Structures are given as structure tokens and as C-alpha cells.
């Protein structure tokens, strides 16, 4: 080695070494030179001690450096027993003799390096560093992979919780409104059997929908969810049951025009989520526009040649022209933090366009916004 050559033992620094040598003088010199360079060093005076230490600290030890000719248990015997425990741990041999049969045995035990005695400490260190390199990088990669995996799992869980929370906002509002109705009727001594039954049925339907939402999102992430044939009516009626209390409460009328018996093939519950998102947005826009006293939302079902168009139109004044390109972006919202996450239209677009191979777009007319959904028939 040239004097000017600066060798860095970065990997040894991070490693735990088991050093097995029966010659006390050799062992003393090697240990005193390696000790400060590695993370930790275990020292054994013969093969048996080496095997015992390895067995006890196998999870910790990164490399074994061993003599061959030793009392009690020979180096070869010890290596073969260590290989039974761990076939991968790097092993470097330091030995004075190298006859052919010994060499064969050593090779058959997949030894990683050989340093001849008398030992030159830098040669030994270089071989240790070289031997540890691939192991070390593999370990680092594994650490990184686990981290990325955990992060992506957390992100997916977070996204799923966010989505569920988003879809629960409407039904929670509906339950709130239903409870107000209960309170109002109770205070006015008007709790007839019919009113109570009505409230119970309504609340049950909403709770059922909420628990369905969880299942839907589980399925959303599962690759083998199934498409089915269903009537538009099935989707529309169940979401109206959910939303009508709030719409009435805000003096908003909702009309369904066109043939609801048309069948389509796709994800029924996901289409429901989309309709709820769009109708909730229309409701919010109507409430926010102080100039409107009578809100109106129209769902228009228009079969075309080979696709179905569902247009949802409101009278809240429309989306300002400079925002039209942004509203489908994730997290774009003009609402207060507590009222909007900006995920509704983004999710809707993913469901309609990616999952159901249709399209979702917006246009404004004189009175308000029209959200058009097209679905292949
Ligand atoms: N019918 C509509 N009329 C006017 N503006 C609308 C209408 N629908 C959507 N927007 C605008 O588009 C924005 C994005 O809608 P989106 O549903 O993605 O998010 P959000 O309603 O703000 O929040 P949330 O995630 O709770 O749905 C809204 O904040 C609103 O500014
Ligand atoms: Mg929304």
C-alpha cells in the first residue's frame, strides 16, 4: 500500500466482528488495531468458544474472522457449524498453511476471503471492508424498502380515512337535521307514531349508508371488485333518501327528469358517491349564494346512441370562469377548511373516468353549473 493512500473503513465502522484466534500474541495485536475501527468486536480463543459466541450473538455479528488451526474445535469444524446456522454470514480466514485439501474444504464452505499469515493489518482490513460491502448495501436497501413500504401503507390508510371522512360528512349532517326534527316535534307535542317511525327509518337508512361507505372504500382498494348491471333508479333513489332532509331544510327543490329504468354496467356504489359529491356541491353553492331564495337542482337522464348522459344542473350561478380548470384538482376548494377538503370532484373524476371509462365535465349555463356524467352503455 502506498503511504499517501488514505483508506476509509466506513463499513467496518458500522460492523460487529467475531474474531477467533488461539495465538494470544497474534490475537492481541489484531484486536488492538481493529477494536477502535469497528463498532464492536467479540474475541474467542478457540473454535468452540467462537461457535458459542456466534450462536448467542448471531443477530448482531456481521462478519467472522477466524484462524483454521485451533484446539478444541478446528476452524473448519466451527465454520461448518456456523454455516448450519447462517449460510450468508461473511467469513474471512487467516491462516499460515494452505494445503490443497484444506483449501477445497474451505471453498466448499463458501468462505468469503483469505488472508495469509503473518497478517498485515491493512490487508486484513481491506478484505473485511470488501467482503462486507455487498452485505452492507443489501441491508441498507432492505431498510429503505421497509421504510418506503411503511410510508406508502400509511399514505394509503390516510387517504382511505380521508375519503371515508369526506363521504361521511353528508350523512352526519343528515342525522343532525333528523335529530332537529325529533326535537322540534317533541317540543310541540307532535311525536306521533308516524313521525317517530319516519325518523327511525330515515336514521337507519343513513346509518346503513355510512357503514356501506366503509365497505365501498375497502373494495375501492381491492383489485377484484366486481362490476354489476343496475338501474339508474337504484342509485338515485337511495341517495335522495339520504339527502332530501338537508335539501328541504335549506329550501332546495330537487327534480329527476328522464327514464330512470335505464340499466348500466359498472360500480353502483361508486356512482352513488359521485352523485352525492355533485349534489352536495350544488347544495353548498346554492346556500352560499345569498341572491337565491329558491334553490333548484335537476338531475336529467339522457340516453344517447351508445352512452348515457346524466346532467346535474343547479341555479347557484355557476363556477367562475377562472376556476373552471382547477375544480377537479385534488385539494382545490373555495370553502372553509371545516367545510371542504377539495377532494369531492377529484374523487368523482377518478371514479367515472378511470374506473368506469366514462367522462365527467362541467359547463355553465345562464343559471348555474351543469355537471355532465357520461357512461358507456
Ligand atoms: N355546483 C357548483 N357551483 C359552483 N361551484 C362549484 C360547484 N361544484 C363545485 N364547485 C367549486 O369547486 C370546488 C371544488 O369542489 P370539490 O367538491 O372538489 O371540493 P369541495 O366541495 O370544496 O370540498 P369537499 O372535498 O368537501 O367536496 C368547490 O370548492 C367550489 O368552489
Ligand atoms: Mg364537494
Structural summary, described in words:
- This protein has helices at 10-13, 24-34, 47-57, 75-85, 100-108, 121-187, 193-221, 232-249, 268-288, 344-355, and strands spanning 16-20, 40-44, 63-67, 91-95, 113-116, 228-231, 252-257, 263-266, 295-303, 307-314, 359-364, 369-376.
- It is α/β, with parallel strands linked by helices and 377 residues long.
- It has two domains: 10-148, 3-Layer(aba) Sandwich (Rossmann fold), CATH 3.40.50; 152-376, Heat Shock Protein 90, CATH 3.30.565.
- Strands 2-1-3-4-5 form a five-stranded parallel β-sheet, sandwiched between helices.
- Helix 9 (268-288) runs antiparallel to helix 10.
- It is elongated.
- The mean pLDDT is 87.
- The site of magnesium ion (MG) has 5 residues, from helix 9.
Structure at a glance:
51% of the residues lie in helices and 18% in strands.
- Rounded to the nearest angstrom, the radius of gyration is 36 Å
CATH class of the largest domain: Alpha Beta
Helix % is: 40-55%
Unreliable spans are: none
Helix-strand category? alpha/beta
Q: Please name the fourth-level CATH homologous superfamily of the largest domain.
A: Histidine kinase-like ATPase, C-terminal domain
Q: What descriptors fit this protein?
A:
alpha/beta, Rossmann fold, Heat Shock Protein 90, 5-stranded parallel beta sheet, 5-stranded mixed beta sheet, 18% strand, binds adenosine-5'-triphosphate, binds magnesium ion
Topology:
Elements: H1 10-13, E1 16-20, H2 24-34, E2 40-44, H3 47-57, E3 63-67, H4 75-85, E4 91-95, H5 100-108, E5 113-116, H6 121-187, H7 193-221, E6 228-231, H8 232-249, E7 252-257, E8 263-266, H9 268-288, E9 295-303, E10 307-314, H10 344-355, E11 359-364, E12 369-376
Parallel strand pairs: 1-2, 1-3, 3-4, 4-5, 7-9
Antiparallel strand pairs: 6-8, 9-10, 10-12, 11-12
Helix pairs in contact: 3-4, 6-7, 6-8, 8-9, 9-10
The protein binds adenosine-5'-triphosphate and magnesium ion.
Adenosine-5'-triphosphate is lined by residues 166, 277, 281-282, 285, 314, 316, 319, 327, 332-335, 340-346, 369.
Amino acid at each position: 500500500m502506498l503511504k499517501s493512500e488514505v483508506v476509509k473503513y466506513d463499513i467496518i465502522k458500522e460492523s460487529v466482528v467475531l474474531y477467533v484466534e488461539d495465538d494470544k500474541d497474534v490475537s492481541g495485536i489484531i484486536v488492538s488495531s481493529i477494536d477502535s475501527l469497528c463498532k464492536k468486536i467479540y474475541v474467542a480463543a478457540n473454535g468452540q468458544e467462537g461457535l458459542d459466541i456466534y450462536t448467542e450473538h448471531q443477530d448482531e455479528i456481521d462478519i467472522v474472522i477466524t484462524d483454521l488451526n485451533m484446539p478444541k474445535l478446528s476452524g473448519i469444524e466451527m465454520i461448518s457449524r456456523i454455516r448450519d446456522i447462517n449460510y450468508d454470514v461473511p467469513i474471512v480466514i487467516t491462516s499460515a498453511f494452505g494445503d490443497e485439501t484444506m483449501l477445497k474444504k474451505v471453498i466448499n464452505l463458501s468462505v468469503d476471503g483469505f488472508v495469509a499469515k503473518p497478517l498485515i493489518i491493512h490487508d486484513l482490513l481491506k478484505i473485511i471492508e470488501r467482503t462486507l460491502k455487498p452485505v452492507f448495501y443489501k441491508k441498507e436497501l432492505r431498510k429503505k424498502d421497509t421504510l418506503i413500504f411503511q410510508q406508502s401503507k400509511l399514505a394509503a390508510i390516510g387517504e382511505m380515512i380521508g375519503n371515508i371522512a369526506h363521504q361521511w360528512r353528508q350523512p352526519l349532517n343528515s342525522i343532525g337535521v333528523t335529530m332537529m326534527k325529533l326535537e322540534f316535534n317533541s317540543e310541540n307535542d307532535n311525536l306521533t307514531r308516524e313521525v317517530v317511525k319516519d325518523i327511525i327509518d330515515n336514521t337507519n337508512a343513513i346509518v346503513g349508508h355510512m357503514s356501506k361507505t366503509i365497505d365501498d372504500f375497502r373494495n375501492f382498494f381491492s383489485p377484484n371488485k366486481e362490476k354489476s348491471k343496475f338501474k339508474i333508479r337504484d342509485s338515485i333513489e337511495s341517495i335522495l333518501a339520504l339527502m332530501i332532509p338537508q335539501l328541504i331544510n335549506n329550501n332546495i327543490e330537487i327534480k329527476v327528469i328522464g327514464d330512470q329504468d335505464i340499466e348500466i354496467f359498472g360500480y353502483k356504489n361508486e356512482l352513488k358517491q359521485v352523485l352525492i359529491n355533485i349534489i352536495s356541491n350544488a347544495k353548498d353553492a346554492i346556500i352560499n349564494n345569498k341572491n337565491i331564495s329558491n334553490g333548484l337542482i335537476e338531475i336529467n337522464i339522457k340516453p344517447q346512441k351508445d352512452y348515457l348522459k346524466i346532467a346535474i344542473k343547479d341555479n347557484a350561478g355557476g363556477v367562475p370562469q377562472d376556476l373552471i380548470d382547477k375544480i377537479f384538482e385534488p385539494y382545490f376548494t373555495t370553502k372553509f377548511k371545516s367545510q371542504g377538503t377539495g377532494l369531492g370532484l377529484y374523487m368523482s373524476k377518478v371514479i367515472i373516468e378511470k374506473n368506469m371509462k366514462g367522462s365527467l365535465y362541467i359547463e355553465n349555463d345562464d343559471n348555474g353549473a351543469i355537471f355532465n356524467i357520461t357512461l358507456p352503455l
